[in-house]
DNA sequence: AGCACGCCGACT
DNA sequence: GTCGGCGTGCTC
């Protein structure tokens, strides 16, 4: 009985979203395993694609002739049984392609690159040969991109049988190697060589005795040269004479390890815990020990020592011979936490996030896969780290929306973590100072085990928060981003040599160009949204599609010269601040100043070294920063997020304000927080002012209950887009009819409505929001919709389904 | 996705 | 008549 392989191919469409059956050539039988990548022929012609072996079978219903697998790309499976199962579950839960889920779990380099090669197979006309192939007999098809005439000529030649298209899947995953040297002779033979040397050949003599000292070992050539002073030239001579050979040595591309970190023999000792921390560590440790997949909610105020609880719980998992996963929202923003883990656990720590270079990402992944790294610190996608024997999973700042991926597959790391916890019998700890309403509600219901750290470790009170009503300020002093109290406080810090952080809440706000005569706002030609002014590049940019154009001198509509920019951008605030406080040194941090790799860390280091007095930035500065010299935190516009049409607007505002407040007075100096707002009476702002999470929680819960929103209801968002607005609307109307036929009567279907940004990238968007408590028909119906929208009735309609969406705009 | 097949209008 | 446009269906 011949075994056949089931392969999921890299063709992300609904029609091909299932395994295909292939023959296994005898030569490949040994290497082929479930979870290895393969190259398979697919479709007509000579097309080949990458695929994953997901199983073996001995028969198939398929009537046609089975094709053989062409090549095996991996010596070892790249997806183990757990992750294969997880990928299947993920595809089902998020209504996405299995192949897309597999790639999401793996480092980028494991996505093969498909090359189309155009090969000359028959005599060509002189002109064609010269123009298209420049004297060679093959070219990469990609070279002809953006040359439609050339492509047309190639297709013609193909039809005439003069050229052929070949396919090649390139395996981009390669280990980095450096040169090592290894003796080829034994001690006596090297000794013989030495005695027959010319007496003047001192260098070679030294080389030979060095080789004698490293018999049976391989040494990195660079190291050998440094240690012994022997030159590369001498080593090359030795190779020629057959004394030694050069061999490639595999090395890991390790991401920015801080050189001040200790080696594994001088690791930092655990800190003394207070009673609350100890109780938390004990509770988690007990579940690690008994392998219970309990979910904990660890709610601790800023500065309550959550991280130390994590570290000690992880140490327990390691002591039990298990591994641990630590997730943080945006790791590139928190280098401090990575360093803290490295100081405690040394080289057992691997770091995994999308900011790494592909090579680094791949190498960290392999260290984990091989069991060399036992603790993984990483962002969202690190939840798929191939750790075996997982003993503990931690999600810090569990309320952060960045744990939800906002493109397909739209998974939430929290749910994946719980799945893996169940698989391994590992507890999951959700940590936050301001838990999501969903998590806190589950903790109260007993679905999660609730742990609290109500006290700060240093026993310092939380900093006082002053709320400044901007309405009278504006009346008194005119348009300004700075109220008098804030300005006074800034001046005060400046004279005392202390530092300040200023945050501009830019959500839903940016600087746009408007004509003062006719009111025309400069808009993106592809999207239904105004263009944003970027002074650094002196262009107008669309934040949605990337469209860019020069800053207009006159209004494109009425040709008036009175075209100005409005809105509050960080640049504009910086300019105003420079005028008000000319002596202050300011560092601005936003998407523009941190675009370049490493700029983030650089700016933060500069601020930490007190090379500036004020750090001015957007949301990105709110998280995890810990600068002892910062005693003032100002929020310039606390409420720009409140007006958004999103039921989580208040929650986000409360989280953000609580978060930034924690940045002031972390060490022995007392801190102060000033929040400027036009809504001083809003409960989100008031409760943040009084550090009162509970009050906010109950208030917000009652609103959610009234409006039937999470955590009382679950939500799903469906989106459809089409280049023609009516087509998008029509498709959605049809989907709505289907939903109403199938779903339970208690389920609420809202819409279809045009999205807040109705047009993006030349497509019109409509959405439907489903709210439900329990609906046995929902899952099947949504799958049916994904199928149905492939048919001709939905030509050019793109439909996406977002379970538990984080944003509704 | 990428390709072949097949139907239709526009051209040497 | 044939060339090439695009809509349709299939890929183990």
From TrEMBL:
Provide the catalytic activity annotation: ATP + H2O = ADP + phosphate + H(+); Couples ATP hydrolysis with the unwinding of duplex DNA by translocating in the 3'-5' direction
Coiled-coil ranges from the UniProt annotation: none
Residues annotated for Zn(2+) 1 binding in this entry: 515, 518, 555, 558
Report domain Helicase C-terminal positions. 550-704
Q: Which UniProt keywords apply?
A: ATP-binding, DNA replication, DNA-binding, Helicase, Hydrolase, Isomerase, Metal-binding, Nucleotide-binding, Primosome, Zinc
In short, the EC number is 5.6.2.4
Q: Where does the Helicase ATP-binding domain start and stop, copy by copy?
A: 287-453
GO-annotated cellular components: primosome complex
The record's GO molecular-function terms, alphabetically, read: 3'-5' DNA helicase activity; ATP binding; DNA binding; hydrolase activity; zinc ion binding
* Residues binding Zn(2+) 2: 524, 527, 542, 545
Under SMART domains, the record lists: DEXDc, HELICc
List, separated by semicolons, the cofactors it needs: Zn(2+)
Pfam families from the xrefs?
A: DEAD, Helicase_C, PriA_3primeBD, PriA_C, Zn_ribbon_PriA
Could you describe the subunit structure of this protein?
Answer: Component of the replication restart primosome.
| Similarity field | Belongs to the helicase family. PriA subfamily.
Q: Which NCBIfam families match?
A: priA, PRK05580.1-3
Q: What is this protein called?
A: Replication restart protein PriA
Q: Which species?
A: Limosilactobacillus antri DSM 16041
């Amino acid at each position: 009985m011949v075994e056949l392989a089931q392969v999921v191919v890299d063709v992300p469409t609904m029609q091909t979203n299932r395994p295909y059956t292939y023959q296994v050539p005898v030569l490949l039988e040994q290497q082929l395993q479930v979870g290895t990548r393969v190259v398979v022929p697919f479709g007509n012609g000579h097309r080949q694609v990458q695929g994953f072996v997901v199983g073996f079978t001995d028969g198939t219903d398929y009537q046609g002739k089975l094709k053989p697998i062409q090549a095996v790309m991996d010596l070892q499976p790249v997806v183990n049984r757990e992750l294969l199962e997880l990928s299947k579950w993920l595809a089902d839960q998020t209504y996405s392609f299995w192949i897309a889920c597999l790639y999401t779990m793996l480092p980028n380099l494991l996505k093969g690159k498909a090359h189309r090669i155009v090969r000359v197979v028959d005599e060509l006309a002189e002109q064609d040969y010269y123009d298209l192939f420049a004297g060679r007999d093959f070219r990469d098809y990609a070279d002809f991109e953006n040359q439609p005439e050339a492509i047309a000529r190639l297709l013609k030649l193909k039809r005439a049988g003069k050229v052929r298209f070949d396919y090649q899947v390139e395996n981009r995953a390669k280990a980095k190697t450096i040169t090592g040297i290894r003796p080829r002779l034994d001690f006596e033979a090297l000794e013989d060589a030495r005695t027959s040397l010319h007496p003047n050949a001192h260098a070679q003599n030294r080389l030979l005795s060095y080789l004698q000292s490293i018999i049976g070992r391989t040494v990195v050539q660079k190291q050998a040269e440094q240690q012994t002073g022997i030159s590369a030239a001498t080593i090359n001579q030795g190779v020629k004479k057959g004394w030694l050979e050069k061999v490639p040595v595999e090395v890991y591309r390790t991401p920015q390890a801080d050189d001040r970190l200790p080696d594994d023999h001088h690791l930092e000792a655990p800190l003394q815990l207070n009673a609350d921390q100890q109780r938390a560590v004990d509770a988690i440790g007990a579940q690690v020990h008994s392998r219970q997949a309990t979910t904990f909610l660890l709610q601790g105020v800023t500065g309550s020592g959550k991280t130390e609880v994590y570290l000690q719980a992880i140490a327990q998992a390691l002591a039990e011979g298990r591994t641990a996963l630590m997730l943080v929202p945006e790791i590139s923003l928190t280098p401090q936490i990575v360093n803290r883990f490295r100081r405690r656990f040394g080289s057992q720590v691997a770091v995994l996030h999308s900011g790494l270079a592909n090579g680094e990402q791949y190498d960290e992944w392999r260290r984990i896969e091989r069991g060399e790294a036992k603790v993984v610190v990483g962002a969202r996608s690190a939840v798929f780290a191939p750790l075996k024997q997982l003993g503990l999973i931690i999600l810090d700042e569990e309320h952060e929306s960045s744990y939800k991926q906002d493109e397909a597959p739209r998974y939430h790391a929290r749910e994946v973590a719980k799945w893996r916890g169940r698989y391994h019998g590992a507890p999951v700890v959700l940590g936050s100072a301001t838990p999501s309403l969903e998590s806190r509600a589950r903790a109260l219901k007993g679905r999660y085990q609730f742990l609290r750290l109500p006290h700060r470790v240093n026993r310092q009170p939380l900093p006082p928060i002053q709320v400044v009503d901007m309405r009278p300020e504006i009346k008194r002093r005119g348009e300004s981003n700075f109220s008098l109290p804030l300005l006074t406080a800034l001046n005060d810090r400046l004279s005392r040599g202390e530092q300040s952080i200023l945050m501009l809440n830019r959500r839903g706000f940016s600087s746009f160009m408007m004509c003062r005569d006719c009111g025309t706002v400069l808009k993106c030609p592809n999207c239904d949204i105004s263009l944003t002014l970027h002074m650094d590049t002196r262009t107008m940019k669309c934040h949605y599609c990337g469209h860019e154009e020069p800053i207009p001198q006159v209004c494109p509509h009425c040709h008036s010269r009175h075209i100005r920019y409005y809105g509050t951008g960080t640049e504009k605030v910086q300019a105003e601040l420079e005028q008000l406080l000319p002596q202050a040194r300011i560092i601005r941090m936003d998407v523009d100043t941190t675009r370049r790799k490493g700029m983030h860390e650089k700016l933060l280091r500069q601020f930490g070294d007190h090379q500036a007095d004020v750090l001015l930035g957007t949301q990105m500065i709110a998280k995890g920063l810990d600068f002892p010299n910062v005693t003032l935190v100002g929020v310039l516009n606390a409420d720009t997020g409140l007006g958004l049409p999103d039921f989580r607007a208040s929650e986000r505002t409360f989280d953000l304000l609580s978060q930034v407040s924690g940045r002031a007075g972390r060490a022995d100096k007392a801190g102060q927080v000033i929040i400027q707002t036009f809504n001083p009476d809003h409960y989100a702002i008031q409760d943040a002012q009084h550090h009162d999470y509970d009050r906010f929680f109950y208030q917000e819960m009652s609103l959610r209950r009234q409006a039937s929103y999470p955590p009382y209801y679950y939500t799903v968002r469906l989106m459809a887009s089409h280049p023609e607005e009516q087509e998008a609307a029509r498709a959605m109307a049809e989907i709505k009819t289907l939903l109403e036929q199938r779903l339970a009567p208690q389920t609420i279907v809202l819409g279809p409505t045009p999205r807040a940004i109705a047009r993006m990238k030349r497509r019109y968007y409509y959405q439907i929001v489903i709210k439900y408590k329990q609906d046995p028909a929902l899952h099947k119906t949504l799958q049916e919709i994904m199928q149905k929208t492939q048919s001709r009735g939905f030509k050019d309609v793109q439909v996406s389904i977002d379970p538990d969406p984080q944003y509704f705009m």
